[in-house]
Structure formats: C-alpha cells, structure tokens
User: Fold these one by one.
Assistant:
Number 1:
Amino acid sequence: MEQTLSSSEPLVRFGAFFGVFLAMALWELLAPRRPQAISRLQRWPGNLGLSVINTLVLRILFPAAAVGAAIFAESHGWGIFQVINAPDVVAILGSVILLDLVIYLQHRVFHAVPLLWRLHRVHHTDLEFDVTTGVRFHTVEILLSMLIKIAAVVTLGAPAIAVLVFEVLLNSTTMFNHANIALTRPLDRIVRLIVVTPDMHRVHHSVRREETNSNFGFSVPWWDWAFSTYRAQPADGHDRMIIGVEKFRNPANLHLSQMLLQPVRAED
C-alpha cells in the first residue's frame, strides 16, 4: 500500500489541484467578490509561473515529498504514533489535525522573524486577492516549509495516508480561501465555523499591519480562535480594504523576476 501511495501521490495532488483551481477560477469569473483593478493578464503569469518553478524544484530536491518521509518513518518505527502503537483512526485524524497546527505556527513564525518575513512577503505583495494568490510563495519559503513538514511528519510518525489527505486538504482550502468569490454573509458565518473562508482570510492580506498579523489559519479557523489571532472583519470593510504591503505598491513588482528578488529588497 505504501508503494502505491508513493507512486500515486503526484497524480492525486495534481488532480485535486487542477480540479479545485478550475472550479475557483470559474466561480471568480461568474460571481466575483471584489472588482479587480489589475487584470489577470498582469498577475497570473507571474503567480502561476512561480508555482510551476516551485513544483519543479520540490520534485527535484524532494522526489518522495512528505508522503515518502511518512513511509520511511513508518518502516523504521519512528514517531509518536508509531511508538505508542496508536489505532489507525487516531493516528490518521491526529496527524491531520496536528500537521495543520504546525502550518499555523509556521505561518506565525514567518510573520514574526524579519528574515523569514522577507521570504513570506512575496505572498503578501500581490496587489489583488484571488485563487492564484494562494500559490504565490517564494521558492525558498516552499523549500523551508517542506523541511518543516517532513520534520513534523517524522516526529509524529504520521501515516502516509494521513499526510496525503493533509496535503490535498491544505492545497484545496488554500485555493478556496484565497479565491475572489462571493459567499452570502449567512453562509460565510456557517462555513467559517469549519473552514477558513475567503472573507476571513482576505483580512490577513490587508495593508494594515494589525490585520496582516491575524487570521493565520489556512485550513481551519480553530487555531486563530484558540490563540487569539482571529479577526472577524477588516476595519475598512471588504470592498474598501487595500490588499498588499504598503511599501510595495508598484505593479512592476508583479513580474516573476521581481518576485524571485523580493526577499533581498528593502522596504524603505
């Protein structure tokens, strides 16, 4: 089974990515939440180009990815769930939940540490907010994130199937909560009890620093509630709030070359 998971992991992840991406892009086209002043033609080539580079680099440097790390740890009996011989359901559910907590904490650290913020601000310097913003991350951040994820997987002794489920959920919810899609307010209130919604996560992309340092969750809102980083709405309202980083408002920064160089640029 482990061999099957390892070989099918790229296909499963790509299939889920393509399906969710296409669904969100069509939803944005049919029912956009906010009008966009900067066209997709200006933004999407850079955002998607960066995603392609990240995928290729990860596959070259980490061909087995986090699922491979889980298989390796399981074969050696490493990790908490392996040591305590936890029942499958406990190991799978526990791993998915705890890996999501790790991503939440990692996200907060990347905001708090200046050097890491330089990497992460590539994600925040997008001047609009849509499904492609969810795949706009600097390559070095993606590599560091994979190392953190592998360390967490091995420490937990997470089952390979749990890691695959977590990866698919994380990628899917990230594209969903970055999408420029309209949910009615009553529906948003219900959905955000379980999953981070676009209106919830959009607050995190505000130019206001106090709002940027809130709503760190990618998949579930529970960690923001538990650690008091939840903010229900932006101060200026969703229609008037400004997306991005105050010091990087030039559309020229949307080019792929500028995104790759973003971490070495000063904010003043």
Number 2:
Amino acid sequence: MSKTKEPAGAKSQPITLENYSPVYGLFGDDPLARDRLLLRLRDLFAGADPSGLNHEKFDAQETAADVVLSAAQSLPMFAPARLVEVRNADQANAAQLEPYLSYLGDPNPTTCLVFYGEGVDKKKKFFKLLEERRWLHTFMRGNRTQMMAQIRAELEQAGLRFEADVPALLVDLLGTQDLSLALDKLKLLKAADLKSKLTIEEVLVAVGDGAEGAVFTFIDHVFTKNVQGAFEQLMRLKEDRSQSPIGIIAMMDRQIRTLVYLKSNETPPGIPPFLIGKFAPLARAFTWKQLFDWHSALLDADRRCKSSRADPWLVFEAYLLSCFVPRNA
C-alpha cells in the first residue's frame, strides 16, 4: 500500500479529509470525551458520504478480525474515504488482536479504522504498536472536582440552566458509568423548557431510578414540612408497587440520623457532599426534641408495620400525620 499519512493531532488539531490518521485508538474511562472525538470522525466522513455505504461498525469480540480487515482494506465507493469502527477492542484477547498487527504496520490510507473501548493493556502488542505509531489516544476521568466541572460545562453548552447541586448529583449517581447518555436524557427532558432550572428531582427521575426520585421528593416534602406536597407524593408512592412503607421508613430513618450528625457538628457517613449542604439548614431548623419525637414515632411505625395486622400504608399515614401535628395539639 502507499505511504500512510502522518497522524493528526486528534485531541486538539482540526481533523479533515486531508488530515486524518488511518488508524485511531480511542480508549479510556471518560466516554464523554472519547465519544466526542468519535462523533467528530463520524460527522467528517458522513458529510463526505451521505449514502452511508462507506461506514461500517463491528464488535471486536463478536466479529472475526479478517472480516474487519476486509472492510478496512476495501476501496471507498463514490467517496474519498471509508470509516470503519471496532468497539470493545479492549475486551478482545491477544489472539483476537494478533491479525491486526500486520495491518497497523501498513494501513489503507483511504480508510479511517477506529478502535475504541475503556481499558488499555500495554502488555499486548496491539496497544504497544498503537502507541508507537502515535495512534493511541487515552481519555481518562479526572478527580471529582474535574468531573463536576466537565458536567457543568456540558450542561451550559446545551443551553441548560440547573440547580447548583446537579453536577455533584450526576457524579454521585453515575460514578464511572457513561455520562453522555445521561446528558442526552437531560437535554431531551428540558428541550421544551430551557428557561426553568434543571432540578435534583428531575435528574433522579431521568437518570436514576424514577421510583428513587419519587421517594426523594416525598422525603424532602416531609422534612421541609410541606404537608400538601407530602401527601400528594404519598399517593404516587402507593401506586408504585416497587415501594413499601418499610423501605420508606428506612430511608427516613437515615435522614434523621443525618440531621443528628449535622446538628452535632459531625460529618454524616455515606452522604454525598452535595446533600450535606442541602441538609445543614434542616438540621438547624429542628430542635433536639423534635428529632427525638420524630425518631420515636418512626420506630413505633416500623414495629407496627412488621408485627401488627394493620395495613402498613395506614400505619405509615398515621406516622406522617404525627410529623405535622404537634403531640400536644
């Protein structure tokens, strides 16, 4: 084959049909940044070939290397170049990657062959050769502060307004999971209402478990003493068969313990930092007697739900009323 092109500066320099690498290795546990580069490549080659005839996708674990290489070695049809993607290349073993080594030594200059995945194993010749040819591009997550800043920038770029705690919540909810899909859901959620701020509750419903979001909202209403909001949300929880009074009691007990820690000027264990800022004013608003009374009533409701024949939801509703009606009323 003819002499290969010099690799383009994938992360910073413009990529054009006159300046692209014949091979890209995109790996790392930051799929948001990694997929951004992949989308740049897709847009570039799709723009030159609206038919899509010169764009093929494969899975390194499911497709034999000779099938992928046949596609990579093919000449483009009615377009200047081809784009061939191979996902999960990091999951393939050394034997599965072996056939690619000779191709990496002399790739087809009219094909852009893209391997991508999460991990990089530099013990394998495949990754060593990618690095030697300057075709290996790694995208690693930063620390918590860096991840929050990245999410904040993504939301702002999408034109979304959001509550201050949303970036922290996304980091805590998703961990090392793919953030790009979560951001797509949030953009879709707010597409028709860009003026209102994206709330924590909306994030929980859209990204986390919807039921978890409902419980979160309910508990928030209870502890801020929003009677109407609490009982409206309670009706929704009763319709959701995945929720039980005992499970909600356990979550409320955890919140009471959090308030006790904060009121004692201690850091509550296992609580995301963004929630500490939310709970601190609540801890100051409650007296020690109120916390004791709420916990005593919650303990009694838990015992009755587990041991009596009464409907657990009725027991829980009675507890809820005790939260809003003073005992000496």
Number 3:
Amino acid sequence: MRQIYHIANRELKVGFRNPWAYSFMALFALFMLCLLLIQAQGYTEGYSGMTGTMLNLILYLLPLMTLLLGSFSLTAEKEEGSWALLSTYPLSTPAFLAGKYAGVAIVLLVIVTLGFGITGAAGWLASAGFDFHTYMVLLFFSCSIVLFFLAIAMLVGTLARNRWQALTIDVAIWFFAIIGWPPLLIAALGFLPYYAIKPAISALVFVNPAELARLFTVIKLGGGSILGPEYYEWVNWIKQPGGVWGYFLVSIVWIGALYLLSLLIWQRRRRSHV
C-alpha cells in the first residue's frame, strides 16, 4: 500500500501541474455552461432533450480527455526514462500500475467535479440548470466514463512505446466507441436473424463501456421508453433495487479485467528487459 500511495501522490503532483488538465476542465465547463444558458427556462428534471444533449457533450469530451491524459502518463515514463530508474528500485508492477490509475483517476475526478461545480453555481445564479437528482446522475455518469476509459488508457499506455503511438490508438478507440459505435452496431445486427438481434444487443452493450454507462444513466433519468423494445430487459434490470449494485459489479469486473491485462503485458516486458 505504501508503494501505491507514493506512486499515486507523485502522479497527483504531476497531474495538477499539467496545463492540459485545466484546459480540458475549462473547455468542459464552458460548453456545459453554454448549454445551460441556452435553455435558460428554469430547472430541467429527468430525461429530456437538454439532458440528452448534455450526455452527448460528456461522451464527446470526457473519454478523449481521459484516454489522452491516462495513456500519456504511462508513455511519458518510457520516453523520459523515469521507468528505467523506477524499475531499479524494489517497486512491484501491480503497485506501480495501481498507483498510476489511482493518481490519474483522482486528478480527473477532481477536474470533472470542479467543472460540474462551476457550471452548477453559474446555472443556479442564472436560474437555469438541472434539478439536484438529475445533476447528481449526470455527475455519476461522468465519473463512470472517467473510470472506464482510464482503465482503457492504462492498457493503451502499456502497449504504446511513445506518445505518438498512444495518440493514434486513443483516437481510434474514441472514434470506435463514441462516433462509430451506432453505425457499426446497426451494420453488424443486419447480418443476424431477427430472433438473435435482442440477445446480441444485450451482449454487445458490455463491449462498449460508453454505451453501458449511457444506458444506465438514461434509464435512471426515466428515459428508458426511448430505447426501444430491444432494451426491455435492461430497463427492468436497472430499475430493480439491485440494479445499481449490479452496475457497480459489472464496472469492477470490466475495470479489473483491463487492469490485469495491462499488468500481464507490463510485467512481461519488464522481465524481457532485465
């Protein structure tokens, strides 16, 4: 635990000195504030066109920001020689990666919370925004996106040899998960018989964490009816008392699997250089 703490503390210092972090926070808060002021018709409750637009904004900005900052954190260690120095110390690979994940996660979650706080305060002064429950669900959605895509970023940083490789992979993953997912899903389902479409959709949701978090948030905001009959089981499952705990369990398994994969690859490369 002490090793994890030292690595996470080091990452916190580096992260909060990174101008990119504050640039993303300012951009995120600015766009959210603009959307709130555009509607300027009191407080929005539950799922609506405004809430859907906010969800899309979060999906466009946060995954890319998380992928870049997370993967660059690991590739910078390789490029600058910091890892070569750290590997000479009795530092375990699990502690190194766990400390990196924890440190970057705290930095990103603070940025997201500050962005929501600034927007919420400005919206409250302008009498435009979301009610408290809707606001907290959107914040929870943003935190979920950060934690999901940070796990992906750790894997990208493990595989990439430098920041340029990481950037290329990050953009490809972001495009596939956010922009390319709907048309790719429709195209893939077109090759399946009708009876297999429903179970295929339910299974494919677990492939894309952005879609998983989006479905959970839309249903929690009361917009499950817009998803269509294919997601009927999802709506019933999430609306149950244990739906939140099930979502937590799926999230832990998803993030844990990516962490273990990153750990195996990093440990294998570490041994090959000894």
Number 4:
Amino acid sequence: MQLTNKIKSITIGSFDGIHLGHQVLINQVEAVVVIERNGGYLTSGYRRSNYLDKPCFFYHFEKIYQLSAKEFVEKLCIDFPQLETIVVGYDFEFGHKKEGNTTLLKQLFQGEIVVVDEVKVDDISVHSRTIKHYLKDENLRLVNRLLGRPLSIEGEVVLGQGLGKKELVPTINLNIYDYQLPKNGVYVTRTKIGDEWLESVSFVGIRQTTDEAFAVETYVLDRELGEVKGRVTLEFLEFIRENRKFNGLKALKTQINLDITYTKNYFKENR
C-alpha cells in the first residue's frame, strides 16, 4: 500500500522557510503538501524536509495552476484517498487565479477543515514575505526568531580566486541558487561539512577589493580542512558588517582578522 493511502490529515502551502507560522499547521497533521515554485526561497525544494519529521509531498505550481478550485480538491482526494482533515492558514488561497479561499474549501471538501489564525511574534505577523523583508534589512536576529531556527543555505563547493590561501585566509567558495540570500556583508556562521558543524565567518556579496565578482564564501575557524568537495551548509547567526571596498589586500586582511576576532568572541559568549 502506498504511503498516501494511509494518510488522513494534511496541510497545504508553499512552506517557504518552515517558519513558526508553518510549524503551527504542520504540528496538527500527518503529512505536508508543498506547492513548489521556482527560485527565491528561504528554504528551497526538498530541503524543506530537513526541518520536518513528517512525510512531505510536492505539487509543482506549473503543473497545477490551471486547475479550478474544485479540480484541485478532487486531486487531493484522489491522491490521498483516506483524507479526513485539511489544515490551512487563514489566508490560504487555491485554484486557478486564486479563486478559492477557506470558505470555498469548506464547501468543496467533505471532511474537516481546520483554519489556523494568524501567528505573531512580538506583534509581527509571521510570513515568508515578512521574513524576506527583514532579511534585506540585515535584521538577522529577528529573521531567525520568526523562522524559529537559524537561516540556512546550502551550496556546491566551487573554485575561488585562489587569493584566500595565498594572501588572506583560506575560504570555501559556494555556488548558491534557489535561495533568497541575506543582505551583502559579513556574518557569524556555522558551516556544516559532512556531518560536522564548525564555527565560521562567512561573506556574501561582490568582492569589491579584488575581482568584483559575486561570491558566497566561508572561513572555518582554527581548522585545517584540506580540500573540501561536495555540498556544504551555512547557518547565519549574526550580522557583523556591511560589504565595502578596501585599499588593497593588506587592509582587507586586517579587517578579516577583526571579523574573525568578533566571531570567536561571539561563540565564546554564546556557548
């Protein structure tokens, strides 16, 4: 028997970020149905399942957007034949041109519909769009509070300039896609290599002092790593400073050392 044949309760949404508001919905059901779009995510694609302890099923938006509200509900009932309960947020919309809302969902679905009220933190509505707004505003601490966890991105290790190891500090350069990145600058981070989380300081932005290329790179504190390959995850813990151009590599290295000192003090104070 397929897993979907056993599931009696689901929640539906984009679940971008799996933030505190999403978690209220998810905690009430057996499985999660994700409406997947392309790019610009806080947490993209299958990576949502990293923050879930329940089955996660994906409906790609491009394949369902022409379904009417009625057809969408019919699809849910076919895909989940034992479905009894659907949990959604108060602002849930569905069907072609968003013709459906929670009122129509109650009319179309024969089982129970649970509508979850707006979730707030310090009177701030918890929405992915709100989190993205504060992310651009460098308010990382608030972003992480609304997420209920540190902002996280994942990327493939790529070759950098080669300057770090020779002239500055050795960094791991990452190719990042499908993510809404934080504001350009330097951050206290943790870097996951394999199964190990390591204390680090990371840079996001245009390398203004050197090749003027966009980069996401991380320096792991006090660790000789050798060659790193594959996928690496970054967790952003605190914003240190904005990106800027320095008068040569010597001045840049001086600032990097200050960033490293700041990061070491952060971890010392937050252990």
